[in-house]
Amino acid sequence: MTRNPPPIDLSEPPAIEVRGAHKHYGALHAVDGIDLRIARGEIFGLIGHNGAGKSTLFKMILGLTPATSGEIRVGGATVQGRDFRAARRHLGYLPENVVLYDNLNGLETLRFFARLKGAPLAQCPALLERVGLAHAGNRAVREYSKGMRQRLGFAQALLGEPQVLLLDEPTNGLDPQAIRDFYATLRELQAGGVTIVITSHILAELQERVDRLAILASGKLQALGSVQALREQAHMPLTIHLTLAATDRPAALGLLSAVPGVTGTETPEGLHVNCPRGSKMAVLRALAPLGTALQDLQIQEPSLEDVYFDLRKG
Amino acid sequence: MEFQQIFTIAGKEFRDRMRNRWVLAVALVFTVFSLAIAYFGGAQQGTVGFRSIEFTIASLVSLVIYLIPLIALLLGFDAIVGERERGSLDLLLSLPITRLELLLGKYLGLAAALTLSTLAGFGLVAVLLVRQFSGAALFHYGGFMLSSVLLGLAFLSMAVLLSVLTHERTRASGLAIAAWFFFVLVFDLLLLGALVATGGSYGGEAMAYLLLLNPADVFRILNVFSLDDVRTLYGLTSIVPPALAKPWLMGAVMAGWIVVPLGLASWRFKP
């Protein structure tokens, strides 16, 4: 089940605040008026087609790309200008598809970035351990698999105990076990108050793991909220699977016809019921007379993927 | 500006070139070519063997003028565009480092590698030929080594500029080769052609100042004018007015060729 989003505490400044951000490249509006507040300690997902503006928004939050107009603050401070160094020491970033230096080994890679970030070099072995690369620290990155490179990139993002993590496709190339470990690490970081913004094309992976998410399309926020809130916004029907003997199915279909908007179709196991969100309890009550004839019941929420495509249709 | 950041970047670039033996390989190329030239340089005149140091330097100048610009351009073209292509440029620039610090770090690290291999390569030659060298000759040879380093730094600066302006490595390498062709092979021909076409009616002296637009020519002037014996060996640079024969002035022009492309690179550097 989706976890409830933490209440957004308005008394302290949000970890990330984007106000009226625009980024225009000539006629192309890569980011076209985005307002966003991400609370401290939130795991926030950013999804959208390629070219929707995710990476540009990331670069604006990092201060790599100046906004055409609008304002962006991280931890209450601007990422550009005089205090940019202090602001960036508290940021961890993993770019999409980054290729690290083949000729360095894992430990040297982390040391190089630690020096630039002003993080203690003593953190490097511990971070390798944390991402499961302790055994490979002395091997050249050239010999790393795609998953190992990705984990090294993640370790790099964790240098200096950042308060805000921006991770662009961090699970790209990871095997299922590594993906589990990765999200477990995120959970630990979240418990320590770290704010995490993450993008992924694997929507199923995000749906159980983010507190809130935003759908980006053509540089605009198309939807924003918890997965549950987006489901409600999308007005997508629930699917209920009923396990029934063949002889009991006509009776069940008769009972369901009393609930408006509900349709049932036969499946090998029983019935497949399409039900508007608001009618869930009405359906359950209508089925009560079946008694023990109803052998099993499963309620299936629309997946984030279904919601995503539904919301994108507008 | 934080020097710590510049040194971190420079240190990595330099160590990379030491580790993959780039510095060693280039130094050996310089040594082997120089010894060959010093020994066989007079073969056209029907003699082999070591001859006067001035003729050796003159032969080395014509070697260096081809070799060092090529080596410097090949060393530097990848500096920024390589990071851009592998996706690590955004990562570097998301750290507490400014673009200028990154650029200077890259340049200084590569410059240290190039300088070390130049000094080691030609220095070894000096050690091997020390018996042929008089005090004055050593002074000239020192000047030759110093100007070779400056020549390399100027073309390295140009290479870093190309690396900033392009978005693909292949394009950057193509432009680097084109720059080599232009400055080393074409530029003098164009000047000579212009001189001949105008029948020398447009002041030859003004034309001579155009040589300053090419660091390779500045290098040639620097070395040729310190050697009276060989001044006559060169065609185009012989028309150079005496005002240009001041080493400190030519050194300043060379410094300009190092600073200006780097300045342009810093100005045009966008993530």
Radius of gyration of chain B: 20 Å
Which CATH class of the largest domain in chain A is shown? Alpha Beta
Number of H- or I-type helical stretches of chain B = 11
CATH architecture of the largest domain in chain A: 3-Layer(aba) Sandwich
Instruction: Give the helices and strands of chain A as they follow along the chain.
Output: EEEHEEHEHHHEHEHEEHEHEEHEH
> How many domain regions of chain B?
1
**Rg of chain A (CA only):** 24 Å
Strand order of the largest sheet of chain A: 6-7-8-3-9-10
SS content category of chain A: alpha/beta
> How far apart are the first and last residues' alpha carbons of chain B, in Å?
19 Å
- Beta fraction of chain A: 25-35%
Silhouette of chain A:
elongated
Output the number of helix runs of chain A.
Answer: 11
Distance between the termini of chain A: 26 Å
Query: H/E series of chain B, N to C?
Result: HHHHHHHHHHH
What oligomeric state is this? Answer: heterodimer
Poorly predicted spans of chain A: none
* Biggest interface, residues from each chain: A-B, 28 and 21 residues
**Could you report the average pLDDT of chain B, rounded to the nearest whole number?**
87
